[in-house]
Specification:
By secondary structure, the chain is α+β, with helices and mostly antiparallel strands. The protein has a single domain, classed as 3-Layer(aba) Sandwich (Aminopeptidase), CATH 3.40.630.30. Helix content is 22%, strand content 24%. The protein has a six-stranded mixed β-sheet, sandwiched between helices. The longest helix has 11 residues.
């Protein structure tokens, strides 16, 4: 079952059939967190995630077109989730769409009652703090494996 929320000229949907995979891949493959990611990896990640596409309803064709943002959640739907690949197209930033996207994600019925939602960001701390995220109190407890997965060897 897909979940939809609307605001002004925009809609957020969890319907994966509406996602413009080429658009999402194009953005992610140029991002600082997944440079060079292969489209097959993007598709596989989408398949295993709860995905949120944001669309401008005035851009045609819609549905299936007009995508201006994206995010995905990896979760066990009981205790933990990881928020990943969040972006708003640069042409649509500064309109409050990023904050709205995070608010819609956090309100999703499948994500209620989780003990923890984790994310990593280089430059959007203020956005996430507005939505209730805080820095990790004990970063020494967290470690990561293979943070350069998409770089050529």
């Amino acid at each position: 079952m897909s979940y939809t929320d609307t605001k002004n000229n925009y809609v957020i949907s969890t319907d994966k059939r509406k996602i413009d995979i080429d658009y999402v891949h194009g953005f992610l493959s140029q991002s600082y967190w997944s440079p060079g990611v292969d489209i097959r990896v993007v598709k596989k990640a989408m398949k295993g995630s709860l995905c949120f596409g944001m669309y401008n309803r005035s851009k045609q064709p819609f549905p299936g077109g007009g995508q201006v943002g994206y995010a995905r959640i990896i979760t066990d739907n009981a205790t933990f989730a990881y928020l990943a690949d969040v972006f708003i197209d640069k042409n649509y930033q500064g309109k409050g769409l990023g904050k709205w996207l995070i608010e819609v994600i956090l309100a999703h019925p499948d994500l209620q009652g989780l003990r923890r939602i984790l994310l990593a960001t280089k430059d959007a701390h203020r956005l996430y703090e507005q939505c209730g995220f805080t820095s990790i109190n004990n970063p020494e407890r967290y470690i990561v494996y293979n943070p350069t997965a998409y770089k050529s060897k």
